[in-house]
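Thread amino acids onto this structure.
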């Protein structure tokens, strides 16, 4: 067989992972904002005696680290998109970074809860006015960061498919939540004398962050373990193939190989076999099936044609 003829049946496995994602640039900018505000909040929390503010600063520290992991994942996936050591490209680096970010969320939720309990048992004096001001600035920074990460660009995969971007977005939203709780706790302490609200809000924030972490762990681990694609994707493939004569799907595997893209292996049984390319063309383009493998089997009792 000539080399030119063989090339007709070969294809790349980059699946668009070699293209710089819009989320990469936005994540870099958010890292700079988060790191700067992290230093301010930690210093202010220690100076002004606010556990809620200190927790917010520590939370930002965890998110600065997680966002750095996200940024590194974007760069790694792009640079290794054509690396033949990855069977289906480097798209799953995205999910791995999201999983790592979720683990960091869970760890810092535990640290927040532990420190909050300690402050309940050993309260310290709080400089309310200055602490509220710093928390308000932190909330503004979180708001800007959330807008940057939550905005969609034309041609970009849907936000929930990019687990790396979703992890970064959840980290920023968790920061915003702890900032809101810190402000509420500080105001309650200043005007109502409810000083205990400061560490209590730290515990509440930790519980909510832990819940987000569990959800992201569940989603990203499914991608890393090659869990079947959403049910509607598999059903659409079955319906498309079954619409051709008496063809039936005997075996079907569909899994994610990158943000919003899937690979499929399908076994077709029919009394009137067609070339594999015929069944590939039947599969809807909207499903984003970037790698399709088709096996065709003739029914045992089929009448010869």
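Threaded sequence (305 positions):
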């Amino acid at each position: 067989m000539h080399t030119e003829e063989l090339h007709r049946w070969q294809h790349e496995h980059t699946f668009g992972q070699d293209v710089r994602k819009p989320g990469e640039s936005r994540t870099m900018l958010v890292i700079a904002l988060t790191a700067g505000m992290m230093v301010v909040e930690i210093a202010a929390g220690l100076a002004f005696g606010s556990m809620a503010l200190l927790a917010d600063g520590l939370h930002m520290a965890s998110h600065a680290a997680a966002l750095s992991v996200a940024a590194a994942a974007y760069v790694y996936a792009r640079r290794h998109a054509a690396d033949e050591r990855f069977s289906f490209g480097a798209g799953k680096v995205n999910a791995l970074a999201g999983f790592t970010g979720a683990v960091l969320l869970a760890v810092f939720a535990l640290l927040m809860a532990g420190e909050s309990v300690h402050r309940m048992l050993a309260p310290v004096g709080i400089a309310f006015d200055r602490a509220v001001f710093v928390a308000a600035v932190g909330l503004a920074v979180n708001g800007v960061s959330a807008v940057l990460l939550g905005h969609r660009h034309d041609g970009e995969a849907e936000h929930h498919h990019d687990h790396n971007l979703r992890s970064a977005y959840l980290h920023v939203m968790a920061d915003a939540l702890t900032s809101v709780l810190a402000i509420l706790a500080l105001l309650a302490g200043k005007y109502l004398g409810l000083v205990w609200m400061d560490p209590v809000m730290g515990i509440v924030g930790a519980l909510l962050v832990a819940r987000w972490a569990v959800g992201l762990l569940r989603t990203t681990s499914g991608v890393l373990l090659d869990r079947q694609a959403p049910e509607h994707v598999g059903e659409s493939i079955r319906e498309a193939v079954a619409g051709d004569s008496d063809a039936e799907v005997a075996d079907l595997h569909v899994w994610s190989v990158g943000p919003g893209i899937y690979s499929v292996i399908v076994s077709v049984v029919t009394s009137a076999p067609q070339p594999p390319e015929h069944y590939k063309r039947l599969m809807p383009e909207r499903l984003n099936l970037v790698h399709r493998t088709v096996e065709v089997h003739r029914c045992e009792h089929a009448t010869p044609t």
